[in-house]
Specification:
Elements (H helix, E strand, L loop, with lengths): L1 E8 L3 H10 L10 E3 L2 E5 L11 E6 L9 H5 L6 E3 L2 E4 L4 H13 L6 E5 L12 E5 L4 E6 L2 E6 L10 H8 L7 E4 L8 H6 L3 E6 L2 H13 L6 E5 L13 E6 L9 H7 E14 L5 H11 L3 E15 L2 E12 L1
Parallel strand pairs: 6-7, 11-12, 11-14, 12-13, 14-15
Antiparallel strand pairs: 1-3, 1-4, 2-3, 5-6, 7-8, 9-10, 15-17, 16-17
Length: about 325
């Protein structure tokens, strides 16, 4: 069958295959071909293949017995992937175990399969997990050219927000000053730094900051990121009037930090404010809270009212992109 393939030397084959698999780009219905010292890895989306990898067209055989979890189960299970971890959200432990076994036996490449065992809890927003296959809850997640090492048992991370993070990062200008007030392992801070920003990143979770610093090194932006473990309010005096961009991705309680955000804002600053609200009034409460905190010291201009995703029945995760201009 004629198909687009990534061509790499055989010694780079496994690392490249894993990189493509993490991005869900490997065409699992076709075989990988080895020929003349090169590996040809069939891909589903040639336009999404990372820069630096060569895509060629060639004939590759179809897999004789592709085995998906659905083939083994008789139904299509729901799961998401984070690096080489597969994440389930099943209420029935027996069903979760059955799905995990099917994933392990299938052509899904995963080192670990876990099932959510609690809701996100505490200041650090972590949750409990039942590890069903494998041992380690640590992985490396790849997203829009960045790599993020993390342990899902110790830090909060949502792969579902990749598109939203990319939306924000595309607005970043080279040389601007940004503060990520609730930074986690760096999914906003790292790509903002890669875009040329000087970034200050804080998080209450010490382990998240450990990973953020590791990820800054991993992505070659350590010279543009200053990371603090602790409450952002503790460093506000050191950065008063400094920020040209603020990210407030703490949807349930970001309002409590708006006074700090205003203190950090420079003469002109774009604020990305995340909120959870009822479908009938998604944006008004956040807008009112921002105006209460910023006016009259700043003119407040709502540039974007954006629904990120459904959060719960009749509730939505939303973002307000707000420009603050000092009077």
């Amino acid at each position: 069958m004629h198909a687009p393939c990534v061509r790499v030397p055989t010694e780079e084959g496994e690392a490249t295959r894993r990189r493509l698999a993490d991005a869900d780009l490997v065409d699992e219905s076709l075989d990988i071909v080895v020929e003349d010292g090169a590996l040809y890895i069939p891909v589903t989306g040639p336009d999404a293949v990372p820069d630096g990898l060569r895509v060629v067209e060639r004939d590759v055989p179809e897999r004789e017995t592709p085995t998906s979890p659905a083939d083994l189960l008789g139904f299509e299970p729901s799961y998401e992937r984070l690096g080489d971890i597969v994440i389930l959200d099943e209420d029935d432990p027996a069903r979760a175990a059955r799905i995990a076994d099917a994933i392990a036996e299938s052509n899904v490449r995963a080192e670990t399969v876990v099932n959510r065992a609690s809701k996100v809890k505490g200041e650090t927003r972590v949750r409990d997990w039942d590890v069903l296959v494998g041992e380690s809850t640590e992985t490396v997640h790849r997203e829009y050219g960045c790599e993020f090492a993390l342990d899902i048992a110790e830090v909060y991370f949502s792969p579902r927000l990749a598109t939203e993070r990319h939306r924000v990062v595309q607005q970043v200008a080279d040389g601007e000053r940004a503060v990520d007030m609730f930074a986690g392992v760096g999914p906003y801070a790292i790509p903002m730094a890669r875009a040329g920003a000087e970034v200050v990143a804080t998080d209450i979770n010490d382990r998240a900051i450990d990973y953020l610093r590791e990820n800054a090194e991993r992505n070659d932006v350590a010279d543009r990121i200053t990371a603090y473990a602790g409450d952002v309010r503790e460093i506000a005096d050191d950065y008063t009037g400094w920020a040209e961009r603020l990210v407030m991705n703490l949807p349930h309680t970001a309002q409590e930090f708006l006074d700090t955000a205003v203190a950090l804002a420079g003469e002109e600053c774009v604020l990305h404010y995340y909120d959870i609200q009822h479908e009938d009034e998604r944006y008004a409460p956040g807008e009112a809270a921002i105006r209460d905190a910023a006016e009259p010291a700043y003119d407040v201009t709502i540039e974007t009212r954006h629904t990120v995703r459904s959060y719960a029945p009749h509730e939505y995760n939303v973002c307000l992109d707000v420009r603050l201009t000092r009077n």
